[in-house]
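[audit] Reproducing an earlier prediction to check determinism. Same input, same settings, fresh worker. If the tokens differ from the archived copy the diff job will pick it up downstream; this log only records the rerun itself.
[audit] input (71 residues):
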Amino acid sequence: MDKNQPFFDPYNFNVQPNNMPQQNMDPVIDPTMNNPMMYYEQQYMYYRYLTQVLEYKIKLKEYEKLNSTNN
């Protein structure tokens, strides 16, 4: 998966897809919806990102707690 490729977030209703032409009113289907593997891969990458952020925050709290007990 390309790092510059934005992930598809089905719960974010504020972002409009960039590939939709503004002047044309024909319905445009998001390419991620045509390919289920791409959708699941993007969701997995997002899940990995969230778990890494959560792990980082937990480790940071543990480190702060350890430092506060040592001082």
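[audit] rerun output stored. Observation attached for the diff report: The mean pLDDT is 77.
[audit] end
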